[in-house]
Structures are given as C-alpha cells and as structure tokens.
Amino acid sequence: MELRHLRQFLAVAQTEHFGRAADGLHIAGPALSRTVRQLEDSVGTPLFARTTRQVELTEAGRVFAGEVRRILAELDGAVGRARLIGQGASGVLRVGVTGSASYGVLPRVVRRVKAALPDVELTIDTEMLTPLQAAALTDGRLDLALLRTPVAVEGIAHRVLFAEPLILALPQGHRFDGDPEVTVADLQDEAFVTYPADTGSVVDGAVVRTCAAAGFTPRRAHQVSQTSTLLALVAAGLGIALVPRTASSIQLPGVHFVDLPATESVELALAWRAADDSPLLARVLEALGGTDLTDDRETAA
User: Fold this and answer.
1) What is the mean pLDDT of the segment spanning 144-152?
2) Are 173 and 122 within one domain?
3) What angle do CA 140, 145, 147 make, to 5 degrees?
4) The HTH lysR-type domain covers which part of the protein (predicted)?
5) Nearest to 167 by CA among 278, 70, 263, 82
6) 109 contact partners, CB below 8 Å, separation of at least 6
7) What CA–CA distance (Å, rounded) separates 45 from 207?
8) Range in 145-154, 178-187, 215-224, 290-299 with the lowest mean pLDDT
9) The domain spanning residue 108 has which CATH number?
10) What is the pLDDT confidence band of residue 188, given thresholds at 50, 70 and 90?
11) Do the Cβ atoms of 198 and 275 come closer than 8 Å?
C-alpha cells in the first residue's frame, strides 16, 4: 500500500467516477481501476459499490476514506513542519537573559524575532549573570544569550548590541535624591547593594572599577544575584546601587534613578556557541542582524 494509492482512492471517493478521477490525476482509467482493486485486496473488503452508471463508497469505504484523509493531513502537516524546521523558520530556541536586560531589552528582541519568525518558540531564562549564561551556552542548555561582555569562555561568539553607562539607583527620600550635582566620589560613605563579588559579574566589576577611579572601594551592605531583588532592597532603603541604564526600565515604586558623570560603561551583546550550525539560530541572528536597540532603549529609560 503506497501513499499514491491512497491519494488515488480519495480522488475516486470525491468524484464517484473512475473516468473523471483518472482525468484529474492525469493517469489512465484502467490503471486507476487496478490500483483501487489492489487497495481493496490489501484492506480485505470492498471500498466501492460499482454499477454501470456510478461508483459509491461502501460503509467500510466511507470509514476508510475518513481515516485516510486524517492520515494524509497529518503527514502533510509533518512534512510542512519538518521543512520549516530545516529552513530555520520553526522550532524552539532557548534564550538566557542578564538581569538588567530582562525588562527593557528582552521584550523588543522577542517582538522582533516573532515578527520575522512567527512559528519560532522562545523559551527564556531571565536574571542570569553572564558567567552562568556562558556556562549554559557551553554545555548546550542555552542556544542564545543576552549578556554582558567580555565573555571569558572559549567557543562563544558574540555581537555587541550597545554600550550603556552605569547610573545611580537611590531610595526615595535619600539625601542625593534630586541632586543634579552628585558624583561617584560623593558615594564613598554609602552602603551599596551589589551583585555578588565572587561570581565574575561583569556589572559588579564595572561598579568596583568606577568606585576605584573615584578613590574608594564600595561598602557592600547586601549582595544579590537578581536585578529585581537588588532594586527592591534599594527601595527598602537598605542601600544604593550602581546599575546599567537599562535597569531603569524596572519601574519600582520607591526607587529613583540618577545619571552620574564619569561612570564606566558596560556592553550588552548577543552570544551563542561559535560551532552551532543550527538553521534556526542562523535565522534568528539574521532577524536581529539589523536590530538597533539604542533608540528603543533610550525611550524606555
């Protein structure tokens, strides 16, 4: 029993006429009749009731026709889905996102990918520090990452999206709240909420270097891995923080953001395994190839 036999059977079932079905299939009438006879022999029961004037499906033929339509539809769907996956237009892409980009940049990236590739499914892990994302890329748990450079892991390729300065996050009512003249040096006696010092956080390294350039080492009152938690502690009045500008997309009551002069900038980049030849990854990178998030980011900030 071949697929072409099933399609020919359905043509006869639809037209209820061997001649018209044969014309539509562009095959000879006798050949079509033999095919249907062979199919009936394979099934083990007549599928058509034949008279000199017409051909009608038997009860078994009607049931068989319904099942054949379902099977062929599922097969056609499977072929279509496989073709889309092979072309990189469908499938699942696992994405990791650093904390400060989870709120401002990620929604724009997702919208642009979905606009270009609507059949692609994105599974997303947010609030991941860069070292954790790099490790997850290396061992195959992630396919794409929005992380901070530099990436101190071999085999990871990346494309910088933009660089942004560190800004000051203050609790509402803080003595520097609303002060347009505040500088990094003014913060030397403050308690800081920071990312953990021992995790290799790119942002934490930039904070330490920014404070060192102003002549002091930040006093770490609290250390947390998630940007949302960091800002929640600032809102609670447990300290101040230096964060990338995209973190200001998190509109948390009780937190005010202030631009500072002479802070270090940090880069946000797309990163992936250099050896990954997935058509899906290639299509997503292509969809984001012309992406300039700077304007959107500035609007959100």
Assistant:
1) 93
2) no
3) 130
4) 1-58
5) 263
6) 146, 288, 291, 293
7) 80
8) 290-299
9) 3.40.190.10
10) very high
11) no
